[in-house]
Amino acid sequence: VKALREMTGLGMMECKKALEETSGDKDAAIELMRKKAGAKVEKKAGRTAAEGLVSIAMEGNATALVEVNSETDFVAKGDEFKGFVTQVASCIARNQPADVNALLDQTMDAGKTVTKTLEAMVQKLGEKMKLRRFETYIGDNTVGSYVHTTGKIAVLVEIEGGDETLAKDIAMHIAASRPRFIGPEEVPEEVKAKE
């Protein structure tokens, strides 16, 4: 049971039941738990994942911003979920997938696809999780980023001139003030009239 727990990261009772059902065959127990994980993922598919975190990662001249949702704030604040979101952001910055479906097929640091890693997280933490959206920026200008301590607000800002410290300070200001436009020329007439 201990060896199976170390290999899968799942609970003692779940490992014990799988070993009992497979007459102590460790490989068969792992396969059984994988099948059960798929059933758990399907069962949780209809549930709402409205909590979660955002993360930013930079790799060379690529910067990625990702949002991953969970059902509860409790899971979103956990170290495992935070680590997963950080790994997904790095995977996006490194591979620059076209969309969420392409991202799900990418290989993460541990050699598993994002889909398999996500399924394992759902099985282990017992909640629906969803890779909601991401953006990738590729360019040679200075980029600054800021993720608020809540993990729910993140900002990327690109500046010409200046340095990363200035860009980060601007990103923090954007997170605090939530501006909708960069300059007056971008404000539509109907917004000006309303305001």
Structural features, described:
The chain is an alpha+beta fold. It is 48% helix and 21% strand. It has helices at 2-8, 12-21, 26-44, 73-76, 79-95, 100-104, 114-125, 164-177, 189-194; strands spanning 51-59, 62-70, 129-138, 142-147, 154-159. The strands form two sheets. Strands 1-2-3 form a three-stranded antiparallel sheet. A hairpin with a 2-residue loop joins strand 1 and strand 2 (62-70). Helix 2 crosses helix 3, helix 3 crosses helix 7 (114-125) and helix 5 (79-95) runs antiparallel to helix 7. The longest helix has 19 residues, at 26-44. The relative contact order is 0.12.
Brief summary:
α2 crosses α3 (26-44) and α3 packs across α7 (114-125). With 195 residues, the chain is of the alpha+beta class. The mean pLDDT is 85.
Choose one word for the global shape: elongated
The succession of helices and strands, N to C, reads HHHEEHHHHEEEHH
Low-confidence stretches: none
> Approximately how much helix is present in the residues?
40-55%
Structural class by sheet pairing and helices: alpha+beta
Average pLDDT taken over every residue: 85
Number of beta strands? 5
Record the strand order, biggest sheet: 1-2-3
Rg calc: 21 Å
Span between termini: 65 Å
* Biggest sheet overview: 3 strands, antiparallel
**Count the helices. How many?**
9
The fraction of residues in strands falls at: 15-25%
